[in-house]
Design brief:
Layout (H helix, E strand, L loop, with lengths): L3 H10 L2 E4 L1 H5 L8 H12 L3 E5 L8 H7 L3 E4 L4 E4 L2 E5 L4 H15 L4 E5 L4 E3 L5 H4 L6 E3 L11 E6 L2 H10 L2 E7 L2 E6 L2
Parallel strand pairs: 1-2, 2-3, 7-8
Antiparallel strand pairs: 3-4, 4-5, 6-7, 6-9, 9-11, 10-11
Helix pairs in contact: 5-7
């Protein structure tokens, strides 16, 4: 249990301020207010490092990185970490692992299953329906059928409406998170 005196001591000894983007730094329209930018600048003037810690992909947050210029970026749910623009940690699936997860997902869900794959440079998406209409990031989206996919990746997401199928995919892969939104089950697989 932390009382106000403890909280003040922690704040006085802080060296870095890390914040999530969605529902924290972002307003509802995915913009950052001038007030927040001013607060971040005041933190820097006090000698604090400022950074993001988000599940969003690195490619996905490029616009906000350019706007804020954070000292620390923790993206892809911790799979990619940078300090002052230099990578200090990364955890990626091999291209073979990605192809195996896609094959398992298609076998269980059918060829039309929605799949996204986060790489360093782009978000790959197999949706023939306008992917950009659903995409809320600031990076690059590439629509693909994933045939002959040959890139390493930080994260793969598979969307299904069947919890049983999601559980089966989870049992055959290394699943870190299962999100259930209404009837949609989003399987997030990370190395």
């Amino acid at each position: 249990k932390c009382n106000m005196t403890d909280a003040k001591k922690i704040a006085q000894n802080a060296k870095v301020i890390l914040m999530d983007l969605d529902e924290t730094l972002f307003r509802e329209d995915k913009t950052i207010s001038e007030y927040s930018m001013d607060v971040l600048e005041r933190c820097r003037k006090k000698g604090l490092y400022v950074g993001f810690a988000t599940s969003r992909g690195y490619n996905d947050i490029q616009g906000w990185i350019r706007k804020v210029n954070p000292d620390v970026v923790i993206s892809n749910g911790g799979a990619y970490v940078l300090f002052r623009g230099e990578p200090v940690y990364e955890s990626l699936f091999s291209a073979e692992e990605i192809r195996d997860i896609i094959a398992t997902s298609r076998r269980l869900c059918g060829d039309e299953v929605e799949i996204t794959v986060d790489t360093i440079h782009t978000l790959y998406w197999n949706q023939l329906v306008s992917a950009s209409a659903k995409y809320t990031g600031s990076g690059t989206v590439t629509v693909t059928d994933f045939n002959d996919f040959k890139e390493r990746a930080f994260k793969i997401s598979v969307n299904t409406y069947e919890e049983e199928i999601a559980a089966e995919i989870a049992g055959k892969t290394i699943v870190k998170e299962l999100y259930v939104k209404g009837r949609l089950v989003n399987i997030v697989v990370k190395p």
